Amino acid sequence: MIFLGLMNIVALTLCIIVLATCNHQAHASSHVFLGKKNDKSSVEGLCASAVTIHGYKCEEHEVITKDGYILSIQRIPEGRSEVKSNVTKKKEPVIVQHGVAVDGATWFLNSPKQNLPMILADNGFDVWIPNTRGTKFSRKHTSLDSSSKKYWEWSWDELVTYETPAIFDFVSKQTGGQKIHYVGHSMGTLTALASLAEGKWVNQVKSVALLSPIAYLSQMRTILGQVAARSLLSEGYTLLGISEFDVKATPIVDFIKGICAQPGLNCNDLFTALTGENCCLDPSAFNQFVKVEPQPTSVRNMFHLAQNVRNGVLTKFDFMLPHLNFWHYRRLTPPIYNLSNIPKNVPIFMSYGGSDALSDVADVKRLLNEHFQNHDANKLSVQFIENYAHADYMFGVNANDLVYNNVTSFFKRKW
Ligand SMILES: *[C@@H]1O[C@H](CO)[C@@H](O)[C@H](O)[C@H]1NC(C)=O
Ligand SMILES: *[C@@H]1O[C@H](CO)[C@@H](O)[C@H](O)[C@H]1NC(C)=O
Ligand SMILES: *[C@@H]1O[C@H](CO)[C@@H](O)[C@H](O)[C@H]1NC(C)=O
Questions:
Q1: Would you say the CB of residue 298 lies under 6 angstroms from ligand 3?
Q2: Ligand 3 in reach of 406 Cβ (< 6 A)
Q3: Residue scoring higher pLDDT (161 or 240)
Q4: Looking at ligand 3, which atom is closest to the CA of residue 383?
Q5: How does residue 265 score in pLDDT terms, banded at 50, 70 and 90?
Q6: Does the annotation count 356 as an active-site position?
C-alpha cells in the first residue's frame, strides 16, 4: 500500500471518490468518512479515543526528530489485568509501527482480545505506538507549520534517516536502555528493512516482525496500483505545487478521478482492488477504519513509492534531474538500499499473505531469495497465509490467532 501506504491512500481516496461521486449506490460509511475528516474530537489523542476506554493504562509522549518533527507516540505500559506484583521485573519494550497513509489508530479497530498492541501488553510487553509525521496526531514541528511546503519535503528516506532512529532512541531512554522489539506493517516494514540495511538501530533492536513485508513492489498485481504509480510519475508534476497528499485537496481529487476514468478499471471496490481480497475483515471494524483513515502523507513520499513500483529497485528518492541528485547524493542517480547488508543475526519474523495485492507473493519471494538466503536459519521465521491480504494483517478478526500469537511467541524466544 500503499497501505504500504501508497495504495492505502490512493485506495481510500478512490473509495471516497467512488462512493461519493462515481457510484450512486453510496455506502453508508462514505458519509461518515467525509463528514468526520476534520472532527476536532481528534485532538484528544489516541490514548483517550482508543486505549483507556478499554481499561488499559496509556501514556501520551512526544518524540522530536533531528529534522524537527514532533511525533506523538502512545505507550501501553502493561496489560489490562495486571496484578500489581512487588517484583519489579522490567518489561521488554515493543514498537508497533503502522504503514503509510494511516496512523496508530488502525491497530485498535478490533476488540482488545483481537488487536496487536493490547495482545502484546497482555503478554507482558511494554508497548509503544508511534504516529508518522504528517498524520493527525503528529503534525507539529519545532519551526515549520504543517501548512507550509517545507514541512512536507520528505519521503520514506527521512523516516529511515531521522524518524525511526529518534523513536528507538526515545523508547530506549525511557526503558533503561533495554533492547527493543519492532513490529511493522507495510511501509513500516520497508522502513525497517532499509534502516537495518543502513546500520540504523541494529544495536538497539532485539527482534523484528514484518507483516505484509514491502521492499520490492514491481509485481504489485493491481492494475490500479500500476496505473496509479505510472500516472503519479507522468502527471505527478502537476501535483508538485502542493506538498501534502491530502485526499480532500482538489488537485488530488482530480488526479484520482483521472485514474478512475481509465478503461478497464473497476473503481467499484477500490479498497479491494488495491489491498487484495481481504478474507477476514469485520464490517464494523471496516466502518471504523474509514472513519479514522486515511491520514495525510507527503506528495514526495507518494512519488518515492511510485518510483519503487515502477523501477523495481529499492533506491533513495530520485530527484529526477541529474544535478539535483548530485546535489543531494554526490552522484547522478540515487543510491540503492542494499538489503543484503541487513545483519544476518537479527531475529526476523515475516508473515505474508497469498491474496495481498500490495505485498505481492512474487515480490516477497524475491526479497527472501535475494537477501535472506544467508540469514542465520534459526533467526528467520517465515509464515505464509494463503487467504490473507493486506488489511487482514492490521485488523483481520482472526489475526490474533493466525498472526499476532506467532509474533508474541517469536518475541518471547530466547536467542
Ligand atoms: C511480595 O508479594 C508476595 C505475594 O505475592 C508476598 O508474599 C510478599 O510478602 C511480598 N513481598 C514484599 C516485600 O512486599
Ligand atoms: C549488496 O551487498 C552484497 C553483500 O554485502 C554484495 O555482495 C552486493 O554486490 C551488493 N549489491 C549491490 C547492488 O551493490
Ligand atoms: C504460527 O502459529 C501456529 C499455531 O500456533 C503454528 O502452527 C505455526 O508453526 C506458527 N508459524 C510460525 C511461522 O511461527
A1: no
A2: yes
A3: 161
A4: 13
A5: low
A6: yes
- CA 86 – ligand 1 centroid, Å: 6
Bridge partners of residue 213, in order along the sequence: none
User: What is residue 392's predicted lDDT score, i.e. its pLDDT?
Assistant: 97
Number of domains observed in the structure of the chain: 1
pLDDT digits (tens, 9 = 90+) for 285-323: 998 888 888 888 898 898 898 888 888 889 999 988 899
> Does the beta carbon of 398 lie inside 6 Å of ligand 3?
no
Tell me, what's the pLDDT at 381? 98
pLDDT at residue 224 in the model: 60
Q: How confident is the model over 36-47, as a mean pLDDT? A: 57
Q: Which domain holds residue 394?
A: 9-412
Domain of residue 408, CATH code: 3.40.50.1820
Residue 1 lies in a domain: no
CA distances from 401 to 121, 216, 218 (A): 16, 28, 31
- Residue 4: inside a domain, yes or no? no
Measured in Å, residue 165 CA sits from the centre of ligand 2 at: 24
Indicate the pLDDT class of residue 11, thresholds 50, 70 and 90. very low
- 34-37 LR contacts (CB < 8 Å, sep 24+): 36/291, 36/292, 37/248
Angle at 183 between CA 121 and CA 13, to 5 degrees: 110
Q: Enter the DSSP assignment of 359.
A: S
- Whether 3 is covered by a domain: the verdict is no
Ligand nearest to the CA of 337: 2
Ligand nearest the Cα atom of residue 373 = 2
Q: How far is the CA of 406 from the centre of ligand 3 (A)?
A: 6
Ligand 3, pocket-test mutation among 383, 388, 403, 411, most atoms within 8 A of CB: 383
Is residue 59, in this structure, part of any structural domain at all?
Answer: yes
17 contacts 253 by C-beta, under 8 angstroms: yes
**Nine-digit cell at 251?**
488537485
Which grid cell sits at 255? 488526479
Residue 268 vs residues 26, 94, 115, 193, 275: alpha-carbon distances, Å: 10, 38, 29, 34, 14
Annotated catalytic residue within 356, 360, 363, 392: 356
Q: Closest ligand to 315 CA?
A: 2
